[in-house]
Design brief:
The complex is a heterodimer of chains A (about 200) and B (about 400).
Chain A (H helix, E strand, L loop, with lengths): L1 E6 L2 H12 L5 H4 L6 E3 L5 E6 L4 H6 L5 E5 H7 L4 E5 L5 E7 L11 E5 L2 H11 L3 E5 L6 H5 L4 E6 L3 H5 L3 E9 L1 E5 L3 H4 L1 H14 L1
Parallel strand pairs in A: 1-3, 1-4, 7-8, 7-9
Antiparallel strand pairs in A: 2-3, 4-11, 5-11, 6-9, 6-10
Chain B lengths: L8 E5 L5 E5 L13 H20 L3 E2 L5 E3 L1 H4 L11 E3 L5 E4 L4 H10 L7 E10 L10 E10 L4 H17 L5 E7 H11 L3 H12 L3 H10 L4 H12 L5 H8 L3 H19 L6 E3 L13 E7 L2 E10 L4 E2 L5 E2 L1 E7 H10 L11 E5 L4 H13 L4 E3 L5 H10 L4 E5 L3
Parallel strand pairs in B: 3-7, 9-10, 16-17, 16-18
Antiparallel strand pairs in B: 1-2, 4-6, 5-6, 7-8, 8-15, 9-11, 11-12, 12-15, 13-14
Classes of the chains: A alpha/beta (about 200), B alpha+beta (about 400).
Chain lengths: ~200, ~400
């Protein structure tokens, strides 16, 4: 049996669609239940639904064998795992956003609000800039709006949240999409189960 | 300002079955642990089993200090000292808690011994890492060996065989040794003519088998499609036909030589009957600036990370004249192995003491003599200083002693 970690929310829905196109019965995942561990009827797969940022943790520790999460999470977490496929959905961009023509208010040091502390550190380090990073866990756009930060580093999908709050994209960092990841040991020790599944997913993309 | 005392009280069932309440006054640094008798017994047993295999095969044990000057590790540019525990010596020199034991061995070989080759050394000891990631040990025990002074494929094969024998001796049943070579990829990378930064990025992506990132980097640098495909396809190969497929894919001379060596090692091990433990992975990476040939990792489905890791490093050991001596070796992560053993139900169980002995005060001498006789007869016996038979019974129950002897009045 292989254990599949899915990132709760939109990404899980799209992953389920892809799995169903491979002929996998995902009905247990659409049932209304509070169960956290769900077995597929054939007994070949076991699903766990976890917070998106936790997917790489479950995978790295081998508690789940394969999983799906955004490349933004992978970049931020930088875990020891295999990234096997770009699933092509869950597309968005990692961007720096803020008010156009803003001036840093923190005595010249840029203040950046973000969920992605590691990515932010690396991005500004590569630019050779010293910044103050303010870690937020959601509604990051409030940072510049309320004056908590000068800019934000966040994922931008359509850009409507930014627009409605008067913010614009100041720089694009990289594109983001959903990835199929695997534990480094499982890929070998459970190759007979994982390889065909990866091939099947590849075919329906 | 006065510090607030922690008020929490924790109830612990101790190994002897007694329940203690412990006020949480002492915290432990992240990533270290105590080994109470049961775990300590399991750990020591495993360590002994590994060392025994090494010793039987002619590897002599050696011990090095836990603290070393930083140069030992930084000289070769192999260890990022950011991840090491640091101290300064009385003269201000930087001292590290050793992050690894292979480098100190290299220090010894280049300064203290005129090696009779092949030199076979083994070790058991703790290494340290400052990295405080969850689920990672900052003090970890490694049992390993070094085969110094042979660049024969037979030396590579011996080291892999001993890795297998070690895990078998420790009682691990279903495990695999992934076998590859850093030089297959190095040959391909050299053909790509990348700068240092792209090369690093490429190696990182290969380590994650991240095809799209690899393609992106190589396309941006105008590397030919055939070459770029060879790199990405190499990563999908593992298992039975991997070697044959790899020959079809890779053309650079260095990579072909590496594949030849990999085949020789594989055939030698197969001839010895180790085939069922082997899984060829031509895309397997182990620290690229450390290893220069065959690399391997031991994995088990009972643990999410490698249990053992090793390979060939021909630039690490030098003699007193600074000429390089080829070497190969591996280290077992003892804690990781223990976890896999525990999960697969193969961990060594501590047996409780065979006899507990109590006696009236005036019979103490007889009791001690009795204890000594039992020990001579091959039992584990403990004299308890308990002078009351009922209390001795109670004690024996708690420590799960197999037999009770109370040396009474007459």
């Amino acid at each position: 049996m292989i254990t599949v970690a899915l990132a709760k929310g939109r990404l899980a829905e799209q992953t389920i669609e892809a799995l169903e196109r491979c002929g996998i019965d995902c009905s247990v995942l659409s049932e209304k239940t509070r169960k956290l561990v769900l077995d597929e009827p054939s007994g070949r797969l076991r699903f766990i639904l976890v917070k998106p940022t936790d997917v790489p943790v479950y995978i790295e520790n081998g508690v789940a064998d394969i999983g799906v999460c955004g490349s933004d999470t992978l970049l931020e977490e930088d875990r020891r795992l295999y990234e096997l496929l770009d699933l092509g959905f869950g597309k968005c961009k990692l961007c720096i956003a803020g008010y156009a023509g803003f001036r840093p208010a923190g005595g010249g040091i840029l203040r950046v609000a973000t969920k992605y502390v590691n990515i932010t550190k690396k991005y500004y380090h590569d630019l050779g800039e010293n910044v103050q990073i303010i870690k937020l866990n959601g509604s990051v756009e409030l940072g510049p709006v309320m004056g908590l930060s000068d800019v934000i580093l966040d994922i931008v999908e359509s850009g409507s949240t930014l627009r409605e709050n008067g913010l614009t994209v100041l720089a694009e960092i990289c594109p983001v999409s959903a990835r199929l990841v695997a534990n480094k040991v499982s890929l070998k020790t459970k190759a007979q189960e994982i390889k065909p599944l990866v091939e099947a997913i590849k075919r329906v993309l | 300002m006065k510090k607030n005392r922690l008020q929490e009280v924790l109830f612990l069932t101790f190994y002897d079955g007694m329940v203690y309440n412990i006020s949480m006054k002492y915290k432990m640094p992240k990533g270290v642990c105590d080994y109470l008798p049961d775990e300590c017994y399991a750990k020591n047993t495993t360590e002994e089993q590994l060392l025994n295999v090494f010793r039987q095969n002619g590897y002599e044990r050696i011990e090095t200090p836990c603290i070393e000057y930083a140069d030992v590790f930084t000289e070769h540019g192999l260890f990022p000292i950011e991840t090491a525990f640091k101290m300064t010596d009385t003269d201000g020199s930087l001292i590290l808690l050793r992050p690894d034991i292979t480098m100190p061995l290299s220090r010894i070989v280049s300064t203290k011994i005129t090696p009779v080759l092949p030199l076979k050394l083994c070790y058991l000891g703790d290494s340290f890492s400052l990295l405080a990631e969850d689920n990672r040990y900052r003090e970890f025990t490694q049992a390993g060996l070094e085969l110094i002074g042979s660049n024969s494929y037979l030396a590579d094969a011996e080291v892999v065989a001993l890795a297998i024998e070690g895990l078998r001796a420790a009682g691990l049943q279903d495990f695999l040794i992934e076998l590859g070579s850093t030089e297959i990829l190095r040959g391909l990378i050299e053909e790509c003519c990348l700068d240092e930064k792209d090369e690093e990025e490429l190696i990182r992506s290969v380590d994650k088998k991240n095809h799209f990132a690899i393609t992106e980097i190589l396309n941006a640098k105008g590397v030919s499609r055939a070459l770029s495909n060879a790199v990405t396809e190499l990563l999908t190969l593992f298992g039975d036909d991997a070697l044959k497929e790899a020959y079809r894919l890779v053309k650079p001379k260095k990579s072909r030589i590496a594949l030849d060596r990999l085949s020789e090692v594989y055939d030698a091990l197969r001839a010895l009957g180790y085939e069922k433990y082997l899984s060829i992975d031509p895309g397997l990476l182990n620290s690229m600036n450390f290893y220069t040939g065959i690399v391997f990792k031991g994995i088990s489905r009972h643990f999410g990370a490698p249990i053992l890791s090793g390979g060939r490093y021909d630039n690490l050991f030098t003699d007193k004249n600074k000429s390089a001596i080829p070497a190969t070796g591996f280290a077992v992560g003892v804690q990781n192995l223990l976890t896999a053993l525990t999960r697969s139900g193969n961990v060594a169980e501590r047996a409780s003491v065979d006899y507990v002995i109590g006696a009236k005060k005036e019979q103490a001498e007889r009791a001690v003599r009795l204890k000594d006789r039992l020990i001579r007869d091959g039992f584990r016996a403990s004299y308890t200083f308990i002078e009351d038979e009922a209390k001795l019974k109670e004690y024996a129950e708690k420590v799960k002693a197999k037999n009770i002897v109370f040396v009474g009045g007459e």
